[in-house]
Amino acid sequence: MADKCHLCLLGLISLSSLLTVNFFSSLMYFISSGENVRLSCNNALPNYSTTVELIYSGIKNKDAESHERLSLGSDCSLNIKNITKEDCGFYTCRPFVNDKQLGTDARVSLHVLHVSSSSSQTEISAGRSVTLSCQLYSYSYAGVSCDDWIRSERIHLFWVNQAGVKLTRSDSRYQILFSSDHCISTLTTTLLNEDHNREWRCEVTHRNQVKASVTQTLSRVQSLILIKAAFIKLLLHL
């Protein structure tokens, strides 16, 4: 008698019609883009020989085990490598015995923290302004805004410096803005020479516990003035 544990990846299209999904009660995972995550299936059936199938938007993936980023454990856990912002959303583990569902679905939500820069490394230099954007990618559906969600779950998104000190709007060097429409925090500053290899870190906390963080390092900060001065000095010696 073959027992099956179906791991269902519910895509955005299939979720858009499921307005009964309880966004606030699902088990939440926070992960930084580029990292790996293991989503557990808390309702997996014990003491059964188990086969696993992967379903995405209602379509069975027969070659799930060989997928380059996804792998399924015998305990119905889902492993995702090199997380991208597109991986955010709801995931449901659904156990079956003899092709009949046994018990209820175990639903988890995956939230991905991602940082990007307004400038490429070649455009970065002292004296120029740069904007770092930190966004928490989460699946949203009708009736639940980012603002409602973060208030209810006591989620905070903020920037810290290399020493781990939280950056605030009171610091005149930084302009920090937060958009509750898209769960995004931006940090804008004018670069200094000493910002070469400096780290800015964005953190997300859930109920006062740090859940994920992403570090942005600007490694090519150079002063155009110093370069010009060195060039002039070289010419004088010719």
Automatic annotation (TrEMBL):
Residues 95-219 form the Ig-like domain. One of its GO terms (cellular component) is external side of plasma membrane. The chain crosses the membrane at residues 7-31. The keyword Isomerase does not apply. Keywords: Membrane, Transmembrane, Transmembrane helix. InterPro entries: Ig-like_dom, Ig-like_dom_sf, Ig-like_fold, Ig_sub, Ig_V-set. Pfam families: V-set (PF07686). One of its GO terms (biological process) is T cell activation. Gene3D superfamilies: Immunoglobulins (2.60.40.10). The keyword Transmembrane applies. One of its GO terms (molecular function) is MHC class II protein binding. This is Ig-like domain-containing protein. The lineage of its organism: Eukaryota, Metazoa, Chordata, Craniata, Vertebrata.
